[in-house]
């Protein structure tokens, strides 16, 4: 059986050389986040409400400008189109925010683990210092020992001190 050409093999993915439009996913994500943030503002709601009111007023009041009569099918189509694009953009912005939150949470966990390790280390060092200080003679202990020694010296009977005068020189006469 003859071997198929590499471009016709079904067990390997096709090369992606057919892209006509190249775009940066991060740029598109940033743009979608900006748009999603704008869609959630009061400014957007104000302008959208104003446009809808003008649309309805012109279509109901002006006899010559009725491009969308009463059921306002064109207005409904515009809202449907807006919703069809807004929902995925908002979801994309939420996914990007989730990714940032996940990274931030991981950094917080690492920082908390490092802080815990540092705290445990310092607690061990403090305990070791406490043990070491327990074995060191303190000022009060030394003062007490010196007082006991002074009392012992004061209570012993004193022996006369030997006269330590220099011997007289011997002269040869």
TrEMBL record:
Spans annotated as Disordered: 150-173
Membrane listed as a keyword: yes
Organism domain of life: Bacteria
Record's keyword terms, sorted: Membrane, Transmembrane, Transmembrane helix
Matching InterPro entries: DUF1003
Segments traversing the membrane: 44-67, 73-93
Keyword Transmembrane: yes
Protein name per UniProt: DUF1003 domain-containing protein
Organism annotation: Amycolatopsis acidiphila
């Amino acid at each position: 059986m003859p071997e198929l050409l590499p471009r016709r093999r079904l067990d390997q993915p096709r090369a992606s050389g057919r892209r006509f439009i190249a775009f940066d996913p991060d740029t598109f994500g940033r743009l979608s986040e900006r748009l999603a943030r704008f869609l959630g503002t009061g400014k957007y709601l104000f302008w959208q409400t104003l446009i809808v009111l003008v649309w309805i007023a012109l279509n109901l009041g002006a006899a010559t400008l009725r491009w969308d009569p009463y059921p306002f099918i064109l207005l409904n189509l515009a809202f449907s189109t807006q919703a069809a694009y807004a929902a995925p953009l908002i979801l994309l912005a939420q996914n990007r925010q989730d990714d940032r939150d996940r990274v931030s949470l991981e950094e917080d966990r690492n920082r908390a683990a490092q802080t815990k390790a540092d705290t445990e280390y310092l607690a061990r060092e403090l305990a070791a210092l406490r043990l070491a200080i327990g074995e060191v003679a303190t000022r009060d202990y030394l003062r007490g020992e010196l007082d006991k020694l002074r009392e012992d010296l004061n209570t012993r009977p004193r022996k006369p001190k030997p006269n330590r005068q220099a011997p007289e020189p011997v002269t040869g006469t």
